[in-house]
Amino acid sequence: MKKLVGVFEAKKKNGERYYRSSITYKGRHISLGSFGIAEDAHSAYLEADAILHRPDCYEIELLETYFSQPEKANKKDKKSFAKIDFLSFEKAVILLNFRDNDIYFHCPIYLYKSYFHYYLEPGYHLTFDKEDLFYYSSHKIMRRGNHLFVADYGMQVTIASRYGIRNFAVKDRDYRFINQDDTDYRYSNIEIINPYHGVFREGNFGAYSYRVLIHINGNYIVGIYDNIETAAIAYNKAADLCHQYGIRKKFPVNYIETISPKTYAEIYSGLTVSESLLKMLTSDCSQ
Fold it and tell me: Which distant-in-sequence residues (6+ apart) come within 8 Å of 38 by Cβ?
């Protein structure tokens, strides 16, 4: 049997035969995947070779459209875009980026001048600033429903938390995407409205007040304050009071970096909390 280019025979532990496909480009040996039959492995090689050597036919936008909406891509195609049936979409993106930008990533990243796209699936990508390139080129982004996360030191770390968006933060109340695109994680596009736990902004047109709630078998109002830093400190004080009265719940802590420790202490000591919260804490049912 004639040896097929880019195909290497291998065997599993049980003796079953399979075929690896790979290609060398710009001095780099690139694995393309494993296949059950040699002809499929060779087809993957031919598709990779076409992507790498036919820039007039393969472009990132058309590639994404082809995988997500093939009928639309065929109508749009005026450059005889060849079918890709054996390479994965992820591998095709990696090859295109290597061809166009001379950088090989193991993740499906495509670089532009000042930002990059990270492709989670055909028709769905995230946009990041280039300063995040090192992190995401070494961390695979995973998606479970609307939950985006990476595995970092054995823990699941949400993408949003990297940009100051707290767990359980509400879009357009606690943060917003300025251009309304919630896949655009460039720093200039993310506005953190409220970085603190238990604090809720009220009012409009710049005339805001800040309501503070603490959850103890239901929400209890701590108070309403004129500025967000005071409100954040009030939440901390309410949490401390809860612990003093024997409530064992672990409350999150608000860290206020915009004021000095001395100013923090002065505000903390002068704060009062609502009578309803104090009554609940001193009642017999809280013991």
Answer: 4, 7, 9, 19
